[in-house]
Write a structure and sequence with these properties.
81% of the residues lie in helices and 0% in strands. It is mainly α. The chain starts with a helix and ends with a helix. It has a single domain, classed as Up-down Bundle (Ferritin). The protein contains six helices and no strands. The longest helix has 29 residues, at 34-62. Helix 1 packs antiparallel against helix 2, helix 1 (3-29) crosses helix 3 and helix 4 (88-111) runs antiparallel to helix 5. It binds fe (ii) ion (FE2) (2 copies).
């Protein structure tokens, strides 16, 4: 599989995983911490939008649709429940670490200097990922 194909496919899956993960967390805290839920819903909507950008990019370039949307959404959703025994602050810290890893990967991709549609999307969404990484700092349990 060529590198670009792999990059887009992986990014698509990670975005769907993130969508499911934030949706799951949001569901767990929607009565307890409505302000946190708002941030998580916003992040989930952005991640889902990112997945759509990558899937449109993939079909445009390779004339093939990326599948597995339900699987990757469900996988992320389940993971957020798998962590249910942990305190919310720790779950948010784990999400932060994951977001920062994604940012690092995107920065490496940008630094590699390629010019293509994948890179165009990365440029467009990298700030969202940085914002997601800050949720755990912005939200203070009250
Ligand atoms: Fe994203
Ligand atoms: Fe993100």
């Amino acid at each position: 599989m060529n590198v670009l194909k792999f990059q887009i496919k992986l990014a698509y899956r990670v975005e769907l995983f993130g969508t499911g993960f934030y949706r799951g967390l949001s569901k767990q805290y929607n009565t307890k911490y409505p302000d946190l839920t708002k941030m998580l819903d916003h992040a989930a909507a952005q991640e889902y939008g990112h997945s759509k950008l990558f899937s449109a990019c993939y079909s445009g370039l390779f004339n093939k649709k990326l599948g597995g949307e339900k699987f990757w959404l469900g996988f992320g959703f389940c993971q957020s429940y798998f962590l249910f025994v942990l305190p919310v602050s720790l779950k948010l810290k784990l999400a932060r670490i994951t977001e920062l890893l994604a940012v690092k990967q995107f920065e490496r991709d940008l630094a590699a200097g390629a010019k293509n549609k994948y890179i165009d999307i990365v440029k467009r969404i990298i700030q969202d990922e940085k914002d997601h990484a800050e949720i755990c700092n912005k939200w203070k349990k009250s």
